Amino acid sequence: MHLEPCSITSLGGINPTFRADMDVVHIDEKWFYRTRNTQNMYLSHREEAPHRECKNKSHIQKIMFLSAMARPRYDAQGNCVFDGKIGVWAYTEWVQAKKRSQNRLRGAWELKPADTVDKEKSREYLVKYVLPAIKEKWPESDRWNTIYVQQDNAKTHIKPDDPLFLQEAARGGWDIRMIYQPHLILLTQTY
Predict the structure, then answer these.
(1) Could you tell me which residues come within 8 angstroms of residue 120 by beta carbon, excluding any fewer than 6 positions away?
(2) InterPro entries under this entry (predicted)?
């Protein structure tokens, strides 16, 4: 739970307050359509309309993105020292073309959106992209504190005790841990 322990009393917690959570990186996925059926564009007389293509307008391809972000940090003068933006990555994979077309030969490698995202793909992106980005962008002043990577409770996410994640997270002396998003608890007060 992300409440300050000192703000919760045994009598029901009259005034619970949330922690600052400066040590939490939030990760989440989102599906997007590559294009829309209809789209209004305002172009000048010198601009050409962008080229859009899809096989059929009822089968518009979707692509999933993984994003990671944390709370921004400011110094005493109000200057931003860490913007909190860790990164955004598209779930893609390299596949060989099955057929020849006017754009490429049969067997040529092309980058395509991933059809499915499972635990293996989720682990791969955490280890290959998210952890290195956290280690690169995290403020040096908080480098030796524990960092929590918070994910929602989707079935495709890895468990907090995943051995490959723990091994890569500890590389270089870092203390990065995976946690689940806390469940929603309704606090009610009676008067």
Answers:
(1) none
(2) RNaseH_sf
| Residue-level pLDDT at 134 | 94
Structure token digits, residue 135: 């280690």
Task: Give the closest residue to 111 by CA, choosing from 129, 89, 131.
Answer: 89
Euclidean distance between the first and the last CA atom of the chain, given in angstroms as a whole number: 25
User: Can you list the residues of the chain whose pLDDT is less than 50?
Assistant: none
CB atoms within 10 A of CB 27: 22
Give the CA distances from residue 43 to residues 35, 37, 49, 50, 54, in Å, rounded to whole numbers and listed in that order.
Answer: 18, 18, 7, 10, 22
- 1-19 b/e with 16+ CB inside 10 Å = b? eeeeeeebeeeeeeeeeee
Q: Which residue has the tokens 């000048």?
A: 44
pTM: 0.77
d(CA 138, CA 72): 10
